[in-house]
Amino acid sequence: METKQSKLIRGVEFFYEMVKASVYFWFLLLKNGLVYGILPAVTYTMMYSTTNEKKEEKFFSVLKKRRTVIPYGKLISMAWFLTGSLLAVTYFLMSHKDTHSFGLFQVASLVFFFLFTIYLCWVAWFHVKGVIKINCYALSLDQLVRHPVKSLYIGSLIVTASLIAWVNLFVFCCIVPGLFCWLVEKGLCKNQSATPTVTEMR
């Protein structure tokens, strides 16, 4: 009985930490101006949810903490935001045009945005691991291709998160960002020895 209770307590504590991590994600996203905020938000939410920072520091202290500026972070975030916005606007403006060429463009744009999001998660993970050199962006692209299983794992999380947002936006906002970042970090850390470049670039 005690074991079940302890598991329940740990489960409740984990849920609470993921909610706080999600709040932190939205805080960072807004703090960085939405357009420029996705990479810092994913990076530092991942860092918060997977380190002892959430246990050793009070949550409000974490909110006020000054973070290291990510090189080209605003540029990558803006490119991601504009790509997603362009895809959404194009879809709504031209969805009534049932043409083959538009269908191909739509699919190609969606695939590009999907891969861009996976790439952004790789970049965030390398920053969490301390790889903050400029060429980590090239390294992230290399790892995206070199480790397709891990990239597909991130992709499956993106699809799942999108479905949750479609079904229940409130649940998505409350827990999914924190849980997503936690799962990405844990998934990429598996068999980390298969990514020797992480150690080499530190």
From TrEMBL:
Organism placement in taxonomy: Bacteria, Bacillati, Bacillota, Bacilli, Lactobacillales
Protein name: Uncharacterized protein
UniProt keyword Transmembrane helix present: yes
Transmembrane feature ranges: 23-48, 69-92, 104-125, 152-180
Domain of life, per lineage: Bacteria
UniProt keywords, alphabetically: Membrane, Transmembrane, Transmembrane helix
